[in-house]
Amino acid sequence: MNVLLWIIQVALAFLYLSGGAYKVFKFDALANHLRALPRGGWRTLGALEMVGAILLVVPAVTPLAAAALALETLALAGLYARYSRKLAATNPMVWAVVMGLLVAFVAYGRYALRPLA
After folding, report:
1. pTM of the model as a whole
2. What whole-number distance in Å separates Cα of residue 2 and Cα of residue 5?
3. Predicted confidence band of residue 98 (pLDDT cuts 50, 70, 90)
C-alpha cells in the first residue's frame, strides 16, 4: 500500500504542478473556456495547487496537503459543472472529480491506512 500511495502522490504532484502553472501563466486560454473567476482568483488557485503539489511529496505534511487539494479540486469541479461553456466531452469537470478523488484517497491513506510517521 505504501508503494501505491507514493506512486499516486508523485503522479498527482506532477499533475497539480502543471495544472497550477497553467492557471497562473495561461489565464487568457483559461478565460476563453471558463469565466467563473477573475484573473486573481485563478492565479490564487494556481498558486495553491503548485504549493500543494510540492507539499504532497513532503512526508510531514502530506495528509494535510492532500486534504486541502481534495477540497480545492472538488470545489473547482463544481465551478466547472456550473460555468463550463464547452461540450460535455471536453468539460474538465470529470478530470477534476477523478483527481479530487485520488488526492482524497491519498489523504485518507496517509492519515488512516499507512501513516508516514
Report:
1. 0.86
2. 5
3. very high
